[in-house]
Amino acid sequence: MTDLLAEARKLDARDPLAAHRDAFVDAPGVSAYLDGNSLGRPLRELPDRLAAFIREDWGTRLIRSWDEEWMDLPTRLGDRIGALCLGAAAGQTVVADSTTVLLYKLMRAAVDARPNRSDIVIEEGNFPTDRFVAEGVAAERGMTLRWVAADPVAGVQVADIEAVVNENTALVVLSHVDYRSGALADMAAITDAVHASGALMLWDLCHSVGVIPTELDACGADLAVGCTYKYLNGGPGSPAFAYVNARHHGVLRQPVQGWMGAGDVFAMSSAYAPADGIRHFISGTPPVLGMLAMQGMLDLIEQATIDAVREKSKTLTDLVVQAYDEELAPLGVRLLSPRDAAARGGHVTIGHPDFAEVTKTLWADGVIPDFRFPDGIRLGLSPLSTSHQEALSGVLAVRDALG
């Protein structure tokens, strides 16, 4: 058998991103944090950033900060996420509401732009929020949901989409990375298949932004939404972002017409007149405090580059799969993620009937993975904050807990 610890040490020794691990807060009593795909660690610099904001931006400048910085923060920060992580040119990405609210806005805008089409297509195993919002939009607009049945490990394939889209399809909603298996969808090919039917394509990027280089513009994607508290380390409840391709500006009309999306915010007009460009998709007052933490993580990604983050993600997940084969497969544990690193995102999922209880044991011992009903453990590996030895120790802790 392979000396897994020696392999992990070798990978850490030649890891070009290793120095970045010191940028993150260590949690007392936690030996392995394997849930970065649910909630990223905070950065050590965050207390100083928050203190400076309270002391200066808010405390000294007071309401003047709206004119000096805060009013443009949603689009400025959106542009930065777009440039560093999404392959999106400026003026197409905005940081605004929660993932759920932004999904609603973009779904409603998309189906309203295809008034003669009756169907919304979504994978039957997609994250609950995506499915629930799609159900609500379909009910509001008298539309029909068409469900895509995909392999639970391999995820949605181009053929799955081609089999269901047609001249009735208004919108297709899919996750770029499956929240369960980590399967990585072929964004370019699927988007092309959707466009061939005349429908619009909306991508959920919650499990890919900050860990996988995404090329929204190059793929011709219409719409995308993603959260910022996973691999962007924005903290619990940090606001999500929306991407709307520039070709749809002035065409799509978002349904939540708030004052911050108006062309003249302070005109206090009697009727709503939308702002030009991506700012139209803002509704209410931007959550300025909630935008602070992610800015430090974007600095790190800029230093490291998203391509280097992706390469480390592959070595981390490859090591976990190798350790699974040698240590967990003999114990009856199932691999619920693709074996090929090119076909998966930043987490590996494994399954066993005892994992609900095993997770409780692991958490009590300071090893923090993520349990997903009915019997899956997700090992979420955030490349800038996770070492190969830490990832391996998580797998070995699962083995010992099963023993």
From TrEMBL:
<dbReference type="GO" id="GO:0008483">
    <property type="term" value="F:transaminase activity"/>
</dbReference>
<keyword id="KW-0032">Aminotransferase</keyword>
<dbReference type="GO" id="GO:0030429">
    <property type="term" value="F:kynureninase activity"/>
</dbReference>
<dbReference type="InterPro" id="IPR015424">
    <property type="entry name" value="PyrdxlP-dep_Trfase"/>
</dbReference>
<comment type="pathway">
    <text>Amino-acid degradation; L-kynurenine degradation; L-alanine and anthranilate from L-kynurenine: step 1/1.</text>
</comment>
<comment type="similarity">
    <text>Belongs to the kynureninase family.</text>
</comment>
<keyword id="KW-0662">Pyridine nucleotide biosynthesis</keyword>
<dbReference type="GO" id="GO:0019441">
    <property type="term" value="P:L-tryptophan catabolic process to kynurenine"/>
</dbReference>
<protein>
    <recommendedName>
        <fullName>Kynureninase</fullName>
        <ecNumber>3.7.1.3</ecNumber>
    </recommendedName>
</protein>
<dbReference type="Pfam" id="PF22580">
    <property type="entry name" value="KYNU_C"/>
</dbReference>
<dbReference type="GO" id="GO:0009435">
    <property type="term" value="P:NAD+ biosynthetic process"/>
</dbReference>
<dbReference type="InterPro" id="IPR010111">
    <property type="entry name" value="Kynureninase"/>
</dbReference>
<dbReference type="GO" id="GO:0030170">
    <property type="term" value="F:pyridoxal phosphate binding"/>
</dbReference>
<dbReference type="GO" id="GO:0005737">
    <property type="term" value="C:cytoplasm"/>
</dbReference>
<dbReference type="InterPro" id="IPR015422">
    <property type="entry name" value="PyrdxlP-dep_Trfase_small"/>
</dbReference>
<dbReference type="GO" id="GO:0043420">
    <property type="term" value="P:anthranilate metabolic process"/>
</dbReference>
<dbReference type="InterPro" id="IPR015421">
    <property type="entry name" value="PyrdxlP-dep_Trfase_major"/>
</dbReference>
<keyword id="KW-0378">Hydrolase</keyword>
<keyword id="KW-0808">Transferase</keyword>
<comment type="pathway">
    <text>Cofactor biosynthesis; NAD(+) biosynthesis; quinolinate from L-kynurenine: step 2/3.</text>
</comment>
<keyword id="KW-0663">Pyridoxal phosphate</keyword>
<comment type="subunit">
    <text>Homodimer.</text>
</comment>
<comment type="function">
    <text>Catalyzes the cleavage of L-kynurenine (L-Kyn) and L-3-hydroxykynurenine (L-3OHKyn) into anthranilic acid (AA) and 3-hydroxyanthranilic acid (3-OHAA), respectively.</text>
</comment>
